[in-house]
# Entry
Amino acid sequence: MSDDIAQALAYIDLATLKPVEIGLYSRAAVLSEEKDRGKYLGEPGKDGAATVGGTLVSVLANLTGQNRTDVANSLEFASRVAAKEAGDDDHTAAYWTEFKKSILQIGWFKQEDQWSKDFIDGQTTGAENFSDYVIDNVKGDPLYSATEREVIIRALQSLRSQAEKRAFFRRFTAGGDKGSFGVNSATAVNGALAMRFSAFTFSCNAVVDDYLIFSIKNIKADVGKNNVDIAANQRTIDSIRSKIEAKLDKAAGDYIDSVDI
# Structure
């Protein structure tokens, strides 16, 4: 066994995953039937999307069923670890720092990681809500291909129009005057699994009930953005898949839900 696989397995054993109150948002019946989180991301040959904790992940049609499973497993594991480690800071940059630390321990390696800052004045920004702000940001972001941008934007527009699924996402993204969520694209590049994501943090001058649809006309906010590009070491992911799934299956509550696009 190589050192990187042994280290990943040891990390998974020691990791503590944050539980969710049982019954708060129950998708357990679906998961117990499928035994595969990748099913939330749709079928191979089609674009798909799901919320995993505070991340909206969009997958391109070229991902296989196994790719989709690995993406869902990795995002849920890292999200639960980050929530546990960040504690009360789960709507700040501290959460995303812990998220990255975790995912880089379980078979992914970093290709780009860059933070930037912005300030929003709702009177002048031109965006009606924070999801509009994120959409405008993604449209001009060279991190993503044109195809990735289209799928991310379509998924975000769909999510905010689906009240039940938006309520599930809100559980992980709204923290009063602080909120945070990420948008993510997963694809295969020359046959290799890759993910790119942008995490946004919002520190506001007033309480925001829903960071997707709440009007920001009277809101001022400091914004942090973290652009990250990671790729999979498939040999490691193949070797730790069953260990991650066993750990996730023991964690209480649900972190993942499909989004229709």
Summary: The mean pLDDT is 91. The chain is about 40% helix and 25% strand. The longest strand covers residues 108-121. The beta strands are 48-52, 55-59, 108-121, 174-175, 178-189, 192-204, 220-232, 256-258.
